[in-house]
Amino acid sequence: MVATAIVPQGAATSSSTPDVYRAGRFEPNDFAIAGEDNGGDGLILPLAALRATLNGNSAGNRRLGLLFSPADRFDEVLPLLGNIAVVAVDFPKFADGRGFSHAARLVRAGFAGEIRAVGDILIDEIPLMRRVGISAFEVRNATARRYLSEKRDPSPNLHYQPGALPEPAAGTRPWLRRRTN
Fold first, then answer.
1. Which letter, b or e, does each residue of 44-67 get, where b requires 16 or more Cβ atoms within 10 Å of its Cβ?
2. 73 pLDDT band (50/70/90 cuts)?
3. DSSP characters for the chain?
4. At residue 68, does pLDDT exceed 90?
5. How many CB atoms lie within 10 A of CB 177?
6. What residues form DSSP beta bridges with 28?
7. Lowest-pLDDT range of 22-26, 55-59, 125-129
8. β-strand 86-91 against 114-119: which pairing, if any?
9. Of 72, 89, 76, 178, nearest to 138 (Cα)?
10. What is the Cα–Cα distance from 47 to 86, expressed in whole angstroms?
11. What is the pLDDT of residues 102-111, one digit of tens each?
12. Which of 56, 51, 14, 18 is nearest to 35 (CA)?
């Protein structure tokens, strides 16, 4: 008998934060999740709504994005990647790691837009999210926001295992990844 772990599904992220953390600083958020309209020029929609918007051509001139929920299937998302500017990978609970797999697969599929983490993001997860290709974060957690505002980013410079992004040069790897003679 095979034991399986079931991660309880948290409530899907249904709104955006007023700012997004990218490139070492908080910037005004240029996208709004789902039906929310904050006056920005971007709209992030769940998979079904994005498909309907693209098929009906009802987005106007706004840039579109996908709210990639943990239960969404990657093979359903893949054909849409050429039509969107951002993928917001949803982490409805900090214990739900399916978003890490989604982000890594987006990078491997060659998605050139922004990969953004939304939902329950904690400070200690940010370095791991970066390793799988996430470059922007809608951070709600007060501790994480404080650390990032104070430039106390916990991301290490050296890594034991490879990630989804290109590897750092061999001389920058920790001793366990270096060749020894």
1. bbbbeebbebbeeeeeeeebbbbb
2. very high
3. ------PPPPPPP-S--SEEEETTEEEE--EEETT---S-SEEEEEHHHHHHHHHHT-STT-EEEEEE-TTS-HHHHGGGGGG-SEEEEEESSTT--HHHHHHHHHHHTT--SEEEEEES--GGGHHHHHHTT--EE----HHHHHHHHTT-----S--SS--SSPPPPGGGS-GGGS---
4. yes
5. 15
6. 19
7. 55-59
8. parallel
9. 89
10. 13
11. 999 999 999 9
12. 14
Q: Are 13 and 33 in contact (CB under 8 A)?
A: yes
Position 8, amino acid: P
Alpha carbon separation from 90 to 10, 73, 100, 107, 169 (Å, rounded): 10, 13, 10, 16, 31
Contacts for 34 with CB less than 8 Å, ≥ 6 apart: 14, 15, 44, 45, 46, 49, 67
Residue type (1 letter), 63: R
Q: What is the pTM of this model?
A: 0.79
State which amino acid sits at residue 146.
R
What integer pLDDT is reported at residue 17 of this predicted model? 83
CA distance 131 to 167: 10
Look-up: residue for tokens 């579109």?
A: 64
Query: Distance between CA 176 and CA 122 in Å, rounded?
Result: 28
The two three-digit tokens of residue 142, written as one number: 């007060």
Distance CA 76, CA 133 (A): 20
